[in-house]
Amino acid sequence: MDSSYSSSSICCIVIVSILLLDSLLVCNGGKTSIYVRKAEKTVEMPLHSDVFRIPAGYNAPQQVHITQGDHEGKAVIVSWVTPDEPGSNTVVYWSEENCEAKKKAVGKVYTYKFYNYTSGFIHHCTIRNLEYDTKYYYVVGDRKLMRKFWFTTPPAVGPDVPYTFGIIGDLGQTYDSNITLTHYERNPKNGQAVLFVGDLSYADNHPNHDNVRWDTWARFVERSVAYQPWIWTAGNHEIDFAPEIGETKPFKPYTRRYHVPYRASQSTASFWYSIKRASAYIIVLSSYSAYGKYTPQYQWLEQELPKVNRSETPWLIVLMHSPWYNSYNYHYMEGETMRVMYEPWFVEHKVDIVLAGHVHAYERSERISNIAYNIENGKCRPVKDQSAPIYITIGDGGNIEGLANDMTEPQPEYSAYREASFGHAIFDIKNRTHARYSWHRNHDGYAVEADSMWFFNRFWHPVDESSQ
């Protein structure tokens, strides 16, 4: 009797141990992590926090940030704010190899008013004709007070050029936001640029959309974005539409503060555009601009996708804010009408990966599509499709609204992995056929991969990865 009881106990312990080691629950679809983040209120960092510190000195440049400044990767847009007066709008820059040959570029200054807020002097300056794969130093400010930074340009565009992107969304400026950014900075994989999928400052969560919180956010992220480009996507928290206080021009703070090279890809608005970077072709779309047939965004994308040369840039990446596939009970199906419009194009052109935010959690899909549906056949279920992208929802940066932890049950078949935790991801392109993807939970060590997989390029190596 005792022996039988002992054997049963051992068997139970082994089963439980296996489950704990795996740390996952197998559901109707893929895997839902059984990791449960400790229930804590998401708290915004106070204005006196050291991460918001204003640089010392009168009219010192602050909120320095860079992004790609052209279509090919040989230009950089340098942006900064001077709080007291315009000061110098010149950027002095030089390459590490030739520090004696200093060059200058001159930009423009902008200001704006939002309700009872008046911005500082916002500078945007494009540095052009840079050499590929070169480290540059740059200085902003006048002679009284200059600040020095650096960045590295990408390698020349080519099919087998390795390059590593960080992926962050819905960041905000909470204590969790700070952990996310620190986790990304200390990740040993060393992202070279960030694909940011929208929702920056969450200033609109404050009374009267307090634009001081745009300033604090930009000072907070300066430690990363002054040194490597962040590729911007507009989210719903960038709309800042507030007719109750007389603010009826959408996206006013965002468009004044964050310039992108949209004209280089023949776009007519900064909310949708494309760039090439190393072996990747990146298309940014706007979930909150008109996207139906005959609209400017629709016409642009229709003309843009056929331009992608997969022999030159094999990796086709799309950024947007509102996800098309989402198994959380938050923002459910908000992206559905956009999916209906554009998903057939994504399948036709074999998009590799679609990155979105909006839902404050993490989810990775299988390669699926729902392009068979029409009124006549009545089919309305996603099916596996090896020409379709994998959809990543990564709105888990740490924002003030907290985590989305209410999931639909059972887990849909299209959902490969999901977890309600804060974190960031890395997309590490190796060559034209393979890329390593990993998602990193904030509560783990810097090198720990909570979810990972090998991506096989849809154009050059369209092998089913789901067997992983």
How would you state the average pLDDT, rounded?
92
Please give the radius of gyration in angstroms. 23 Å
- The total count of helices amounts to 6
Q: Describe the main β-sheet briefly.
A: 9 strands, mixed
Based on Cα principal axes, name the global outline: globular
Distance between the termini: 43 Å
Low-confidence stretches: 1-27
Which structural class should the secondary elements be placed in?
alpha+beta
The CATH C-level name of the domain at 159-456 is Alpha Beta
- The CATH topology label of the domain at 159-456 is Purple Acid Phosphatase, chain A, domain 2
- Helix content range of the residues, please? 10-25%
In order across it, which strands form the biggest sheet? 1-2-24-20-23-19-18-17-16
What share of the residues does DSSP label as strand, in percent? 25-35%
CATH arch. level architecture of the domain at 159-456? 4-Layer Sandwich
According to CATH, the homologous superfamily of the domain at 159-456 is Metallo-dependent phosphatases
- How many individual β-strands? 27
What's a concise summary of this model?
With 468 residues, the chain is an alpha+beta fold. The chain has six helices and 27 strands. Its cofactor is Zn(2+); Fe cation.
Please give a structural write-up.
There is one protein chain. The chain has 468 residues and is an alpha+beta fold. It has a domain at 159-456: Metallo-dependent phosphatases (Purple Acid Phosphatase, chain A, domain 2), CATH 3.60.21.10. Helix content is 16%, strand content 29%. The chain has six helices and 27 strands. The chain has helices at 2-22, 175-185, 212-225, 252-257, 296-304, 336-348, and strands at residues 24-26, 31-33, 62-68, 76-82, 90-95, 98-106, 108-110, 113-114, 117-118, 121-127, 135-142, 145-152, 163-168, 193-196, 230-231, 273-277, 280-284, 315-319, 353-356, 362-365, 368-369, 383-384, 390-394, 415-419, 423-429, 434-441, 451-456. The strands form six sheets. A nine-stranded mixed sheet has the order 1-2-24-20-23-19-18-17-16. The chain has a six-stranded mixed sheet with strand order 15-14-13-25-26-27, covered by helices on one side. Strands 3-4-10-7 form a four-stranded antiparallel sheet. Mean pLDDT is 92; it is low at 1-27.
